[in-house]
Amino acid sequence: MSKQTSGWLRPMVATFVTAVFFLPLYLVLVNVFKPGSEIVDSPVGLPIPPTLDSVKQVFTRSDHLFWYGLINSVEVTAVSITVLTVLSAMCGYFLARSQGLGARIMLVVMLAGLMIPPAVIIAPITEVLRSFGLMSTVMGLVLVNVGYYVPFGVFVFAGFVKTIPVELEQAAAIDGAGRMRTFWQVVFPLLRPASASVLIFLGVWIWNDFLNPLIILGPAEGTTVTVGIYRAMGEHQQDYGQVFALMFLATLPVLVFYLAFQKHFVKGLTAGASKG
Amino acid sequence: MSGGPSRTTRRFGRLSHFALFGLPSLALYACFVLVPIGIAAYYSLTNRNPFNPPTKWVGLRNYRTLADDPDFWKVLTNTIIITVAVTIAANAIGLAIAVLLDRRGWLYNALRGVFFTPVVLSGVVVSVIWQSILTDDGLLNTTLHKLGVDHPPGWLSDPDLALYTLCWILTWQMIGFCVVVYLAGLQGVPHELHEAATVDGAGPFERFRHITWPLLAPALTINTVMMLISTFKTYDQVQVITNGGPGDRTTSTIAFDVIQTGLVGNRSGYSSAVAVVMLVFVAAVSTVVLRLLQRREVNA
């Protein structure tokens, strides 16, 4: 193969492979903006002229599936990731800076939690929630999310804290700041890159979660957008227009969030990959 | 990450520090992870069924039942097939694509973005997309019909095929993760090594084999462990696309089975035993694989 062919061959192959990979996503994108009859006749064609019929149908459903789901998803995700960032930053800081045996055991116990499949514990979780009177509530789902994902946050923050010089905290201590004040005014602002990773990863995971909201929140008004897609799917096996539109709208917030913070996301993901 | 805190660290000595910084996280973790594991372990030793009390202590009977239960072995086999197939496929395809995209420029940046998109989609969304393509009257088979194929495969309705279709769907979603991690690894491979090897007469494949591949060891570790752990839990796609079928548990995974027998079938005692086995399995496999791969990193 000569130098010249390899010059255009790589971009051509790369573009072709990517296009094939992208086909399923393309299918959703174009069909969101087509009328139902056209989806059946020519599923792959471009939507000319584009129509917002399916989107309007999703917005105006009589059971308000989309709106209830959206409110719940925003509430659950926003509250969960805020609480998770604060609690896991404090806990990660504490565990990274303590040298006691208790703290080391606690770190190991928490890290073991990273591997636990949700299906293993969801049934007992419903019983714990029932005993607190929190079953079928947003509050209950938030607490479950915090408990389940806190090891991930602690893992990220504990690792990051070790890269911050202790001298900064000692200086603050000499100036008379207590532990709390040192943490909030000196350490926490320095943890911003770790906070970004935690917020983005957990934001995406919690927004996309299926099993926990399906079982904890229950039907109708308690659904999230992700579970809503599943429910809509059951009703309209053949009406892909509406299901695709619902999927598109349910995914839009995550995609915007992801695109806005893409750098942090990829950085967080690859932090360990190159260094090992 | 750099080493532990230095000798001069002001220690967290006091209990009040633990109460302030550590306790809130630990309490929630205990409530919603540790206690539920304890409950599952306890139920696994009883005949609990919420609709058929009283609950009695039965010792290891549930474990003996599941060892003799062909359905349990079927879902375990399915889960192992899915986990191994997806881990290998996502790594292999992800590495190939990473090598293909390992160039600078706007085009390559845009293409990388495309591969990563499915990683941020929910399992439900990915399931619905592929279901619309792969059902018997879905897009793929309609197209095959038009091309003159009279009996296109029943991707999701053929009991012999559905499990592998599911593997492909999971792989498609995971590829992007592997691509990103491998790309980061590839960027850490020093150019000088490649140049030196080229001067010594090494071809592209020899250079990949002896320079790039050993240096990708940490990326391989991360991708393998991540793929194993996340695929082993497969639930969403089974629930949404196949509901465990077609036929008898042809695509049921162990996570799906735990939910089906426990929350749908109300056999809490038995399903807890399955859950405990699953937990032990995932812990053992990930520990062993992590050890092996890390040893390989050191030797490489």
Describe this structure as you would to a colleague.
The complex is a heterodimer of chains A (276) and B (300). Chain A has helices spanning 3-32, 36-41, 53-59, 65-97, 101-112, 118-132, 138-161, 166-174, 179-190, 192-208, 211-216, 225-235, 240-260, 262-275. Chain A is mainly α and 276 residues long. The longest helix of chain A has 33 residues, at 65-97. In chain A, 46% of the residues are buried. Chain B is an all-alpha fold. Chain B is 71% helix and 0% strand. Chain B is built from 13 helices and no strands. Chain B has helices spanning 15-43, 61-68, 70-101, 106-116, 123-134, 139-146, 162-187, 191-199, 204-215, 217-232, 236-242, 254-264, 268-299. In chain B, helix 4 (106-116) runs antiparallel to helix 7 (162-187) and helix 10 (217-232) runs antiparallel to helix 13 (268-299). The interface between A and B is large, with 97 and 99 residues.
Short description:
The complex is a heterodimer of chains A (276) and B (300). Chain A is mainly alpha-helical. Helix content of chain A is 79%, strand content 0%.
**First CA to last CA of chain A: what distance?**
36 Å
* SSE sequence of chain B, one letter per element: HHHHHHHHHHHHH
Indicate the structural class of chain B: mainly alpha
Shape of chain A: globular
Mean pLDDT of chain B: 89
Question: Poorly predicted ranges of chain B (pLDDT <50, ≥5 residues)?
Answer: 1-9
Tally of helical segments of chain B: 13
Q: What is the total tally of β strands of chain A?
A: 0
Taken from the alpha-carbon principal axes, the silhouette of chain B is: globular
Q: Helices and strands of chain A, in N-to-C order?
A: HHHHHHHHHHHHHH
The major sheet of chain B is characterized as: none
